[in-house]
Amino acid sequence: AWSKSLKQRWNTKPVYVVGKATASLVEEIGLIPQGEKSGNAEKLAEYICSREKPNSSALLFPCGALKREVLPTVLREKGIPLESLTVYQTTQHTDLQESLSSYFSQKGIPASIVFFSPSGVKFCLQHIQKLSGDFTNHIKFAAIGPTTAEAMEAAGIPVSCTAESPTPQDLAAGIQKALHLQNC
């Protein structure tokens, strides 16, 4: 049914995504993503607002239980209807504490740690602080984007760098600057 008719009908509608990883998954199922270079909810909201008319048909927003309200708020303020549907729950990986303990015991305290989401901060930080003890302040903490950086700051850890855009290249450049390395 998807290949015969549904995919074609869905492709008449815009499919907005925040990043390249989601764009790739959308392409895999045969849809055409838009907005993948936005990188965060604020920029995606601007992108959507530049393309959608107020009081048009509602956009479907499949999201996680821990989503922030940035996208819904901006779209609501601009009169663009949005229907949020929680489709997943973010939880801590069952082996997280064991994996972190194993890493720290085998490799020692890392020079830098990157957080990729506010939930990563929520689930990992206390374990990292416990394992690194008095050396926590020697670690350079990096964020993949501004939302994650805000969560880190709220948790009381200094943000050494935030990637200019959520790409491996920009993240590596930020970490390199934070660690004061040359020619990496």
Provide a quick synopsis of the model.
Helix content is 45%, strand content 15%.
Provide an overview of this structure.
This protein is α/β, with parallel strands linked by helices. The chain folds into two domains: 4-88, Rossmann fold, CATH 3.40.50.10090; 95-181, Rossmann fold, CATH 3.40.50. 45% of the residues lie in helices and 15% in strands. It has eight helices and seven strands; from the N terminus they run αβαβαβαβαβαβαβα. The protein has helices at residues 2-10, 20-28, 41-49, 70-77, 96-107, 118-132, 146-154, 168-179, and strands at residues 15-16, 33-34, 59-64, 82-88, 112-115, 140-143, 161-162. The chain has a three-stranded parallel beta sheet with strand order 5-6-7. It has a two-stranded parallel ribbon with strand order 1-2. Helix 2 links the parallel strand 1 (15-16) and strand 2. Helix 3 packs parallel to helix 4 (70-77) and helix 5 (96-107) packs across helix 6 (118-132). The longest helix is centred in the C-terminal third of the chain and has 15 residues, at 118-132. The chain is elongated, with a radius of gyration of 19 Å. The N and C termini lie far apart (50 Å). The relative contact order is 0.10.
Output the structural class.
alpha/beta
Compute the average pLDDT: 91
The CATH top-level class label of the largest domain:
Alpha Beta
Helix content: 40-55%
User: What sequence of helices (H) and strands (E) makes up the elements?
Assistant: HEHEHEHEHEHEHEH
What is the C-alpha radius of gyration, as a whole number of Å? 19 Å
> In total, how many domains does the architecture comprise?
2
Most strands sheet = 3 strands, parallel
Number of helices: 8
List segments where confidence is low: pLDDT < 50 over at least 5 consecutive residues: none
Q: Would you identify the CATH architecture of the largest domain?
A: 3-Layer(aba) Sandwich
What is the fold-level CATH name, i.e. the topology of the largest domain?
Rossmann fold
Q: Which term fits the overall shape?
A: elongated
> Would you count the extended β strands for me?
7
GO molecular function: uroporphyrinogen-III synthase activity
GO biological process, one term: protoporphyrinogen IX biosynthetic process
Protein name: HEM4 synthase
Organism: Pandion haliaetus
